[in-house]
Amino acid sequence: MTFTVELQSMRLGIKLKFFLLGWLVLALSAAHSQVGVQIPSSQKFNGEPITLNAWLFWAPALNQDHRSQAAVVLLHGCAGALDAKGKLSHRMTDYAQRFNEQGWHALVLDSLTPRGVKQICTQPYSKRLITPLLRAQDVLDAHAWLTEQKGIDQDHIGYVGWSNGGSTVLAATNLNNAVVAASSLRPVAAAVFYPGCVEDLNLGYRPNAPMLIQVGDRDDWTHMGPCKAMVEQALEPKPEIIAYPGAYHQFDSEQDVKIRYDVGSGKGVHYGGNPGANLASKKRLIEFLKIELE
């Protein structure tokens, strides 16, 4: 009886060791899928050359012959790509992992810290040096860098941006912008959440790719009105715009709705999640990208 118990304990111990080893391999694999990279910038800031910071999330191989797979460039909002602890924000990592689950590589691009800035939310719009148009060149530089990386399908690259990053995506896909018109790079698809659309409305939006725009109808930070007007006037391919009822800025989050008084006019703007809009917008985003990226 004692021998039987000892043998069972040994077998249990061996199984536990194999389980822990397998878990460790998976954990290390997941950790190694995110790689910090530096991307040369084609522009200077305050007269000095800069290098852009980025994080590349490699998607699992979808096939045994490791054929190249699509990639998505992620553009952060005015708060930057990093959280208060200096790590990638939850939004960036969450969406990068969602894209990885679809078999798409994800590149999170940081436009602020290489320029010595942590956030631009509290800066008046008229005094901002880091603008969506300036960041549009960052997008093109990142796109060019991706086309040179092994394992990435250079013909299937898309852009996704949030708030100021959404405005950046609009600027980076508008053929009425000189930097875009002069570039041979074209995304196969682009999607934005609650962008500011005033600049591209005034300029006229001439998209170089299919575009999905998702906004909240109660957004008082970046109002949906200019976006709807921009879409109505836009040339083909006509952007798709979805407005979620009762949704504020950053509706694609799980945080409670709060008010900020340190941005915009100072009168207070709402931001925070909306359960229905959160689920619906993420579902629509994946559906849209699956059609265009694959």
Features of this protein?
294 residues, alpha/beta, Rossmann fold, 8-stranded mixed sheet, two-stranded antiparallel ribbon, 8 helices, 36% helix
List unreliable stretches of 5+ residues: 1-10, 12-32
- Which strand order spans the largest sheet, edge to edge or round the barrel? 1-2-4-3-5-6-7-8
State the CATH topology.
Rossmann fold
Q: Output the number of helix runs.
A: 8
CATH class: Alpha Beta
Number of domains: 1
How would the global form be characterised?
Answer: globular
Radius of gyration: 22 Å
Main pleated sheet: 8 strands, mixed
Broad structural category? alpha/beta
Number of strands: 10
Q: What's the CATH H-level homologous superfamily? A: Alpha/Beta hydrolase fold, catalytic domain
Beta content? 15-25%
Question: What is the overall pLDDT average?
Answer: 90
* Helix/strand order: HEEEHEHEHHEHEHEEEH
Instruction: Tell me the helix content.
Output: 25-40%
What distance lies between the first and last C-alpha atoms, to the nearest angstrom? 61 Å
CATH architecture: 3-Layer(aba) Sandwich
